[in-house]
Amino acid sequence: MAPLRHALSRMMRSLVMKFTVLCAFVLIAATSVMTGIGYVSKSHDNRVTALAHAELMSQVLASNLAEQASQRDARRLTMGLGAFGERGDVQGAYIVDPAREVLVSAGNVEFAPGERSTDALVHGALGSVDTRVEIVGELIRVAHPVMHQGRLAGAIVIDVPIAAVSRPAAEIFQRQILVGLVALLIFLPLVAYVVRTALGPIHKLTEAARLASSRKLDMRIDVRTGDELEVLANAFNRMFARLDASMKRIHRLAYVDMVTELPNRERFRKEVERVTRRAEDTGTAGAVLFLDLDRFKRVNDSLGLGEGDRLLEAVARRLRETARGWDLRQGEDGAEPSLVARLGGDEFTILLPALRDPADAARVARLVIDAVRRPFEISGHRVFLGVSVGVAVFPRDGGDPETLLRHADLAMAAAKCAGGNAYEFFEASMNQTAFERLVLEGELREAVRDDQLVVFYQPKISIKDGSIAGVEALVRWNHPTAGLLSPGTFIQAAEECGLIGEIGDWVMRRACTEIADLNRRGYSVPVAVNVSAVQFEDEGFADSVLDTLRETGLPASLLELELTESVAMRQPERVLEQIEPLRARGVGFAIDDFGTGHSSLSYLTRMPFDVFKIDQSFVRDMSKDPHARIVVETILAMAKALKLQTVAEGVETSEQLAFLREQGATLAQGYLFARPMPLADLVRFADDDKSRVQLASA
Fold first, then answer.
1. Same domain assignment for residues 233 and 289
2. Might you report a single GO cellular component term (predicted)?
3. Same-domain pairing of 207 and 220
């Protein structure tokens, strides 16, 4: 054995021998790789071929039997389907009508004529009026809708075995193995010679592998040796091609929005970065437009997510057309086109790479607004949207994507606050406003956490005798540095940062606690508490109010809940469901700011409200605006006819009081009687008989 080991050792010292042995292994490996690839490829091709065959047969059969299916002619359908079912490449087939009742069947199928098909494939084909395909093991199932004269006549289902229409992949696998073995036996004696010429291709392969490691996959290895190395090189080429396709797909997923086919946020950010860098070098200017659709959430909730995506696709098409139209109008050869992108949700952006004048950005914004305002046709519905546009011009408003997008977003928010369907250019003051709002929201969260809020009470006075008929609970913020703040300074911020519901619940609990304490001390004063839309839309709103009454000990008859007219009329049926359990316990309800919304009288007469609160804007303008006076008169007459109480807000003059008394108003509230006051002052006010006597004699 020692001489043999010594001889083998000497042989392996030869580079030619090493490469001979290596090439033998490479040949085996390459053959195995090619065999596996061929087997997988053939299996895939078999499925593709069988799938195309099955779809073609379903289309032909659906076309030939469309008239019979529409007429439910079972005899002719049986004849046509029977001959088809005897084919060797069909396992079974059946035809259903639009109600999924099986008309005829042939071969091995699950459902008999007269039965109702529960197949999800049939349901999908009928529902979408489109071909549905599924592969179950080695069986292809196709459901194709049958159309006759433009109407759905049913669907045909065909089961096709893959093996019946394609050559088995196992045969290819065996043949490739045999070819590999034969090649090994033939070429192995010549390997020593081939190795010398193979060193060049090996170098190419090595270089290709190095390039592939640096993600350069769009290359081709050109090896023409006619041996296994060429096979290996071709395998590498196929592998690189597939990797390149995969990398491009990954790139697409990373940079393209799948709903609208527009560039996504990351792609837009990179393009803005490139364009702003070029603008800085060339001294040119451009703009970023930030778009937010108005009323899209409402439409999306109404139509559903699928239709919402279709609407977004339609918006994207219009934005592309608008941007393309603008580029063509500019007519500059070689100019970089505008870029439309979707950031997410209902937010879009447009990059204008070069502007001759900042006013051009305003013109594009106006074109966008006009384009989006035109009605959309979605599943037979005419949908109307609006859009708010914010414009940031570079390099004036920023030189990087993050800054420009932030500034354009701030400008868009200003346009939306102005009512929507408008555009705004970024101004430096918007940064300060946004910062102040951010600070305010942070301080407001601390205020809720640290119990800095307080409740003030404004009396409601009986116009008839001047007595206190109740109070309205109003929140105030006892700011550590700014002092006492009215709701107008922080309520909008509370709504935007999601604290309005928490603040509303706190005010209700605190007001019920304090008024319950007054009631135990002998002051039976009803309290009115404002309810926000967020509170009222909570499924557990009624239970929460009842829990508060039970825990605080306040009689339900001393609590009145005020809903704004817009909240009350948004979903009248839901309002009835929420109010009824509370009214059954004695809780009263009032419509706040009545006359400022859009009430439906048909619903209004059904609503279980007790009080109309006349908005102070009408009361204030009664003396100088005849229309305001007419509105007040109408509300009072309506309340009288419906046997409801009325509360006139914002009463500040004796003339206003006299008119309200003359028109039959029941309660009044305003600075003429008292400003909102803390609980201790309310007690003193209730004890002061002079104010009530003077009012009664006025």
1. no
2. membrane
3. no
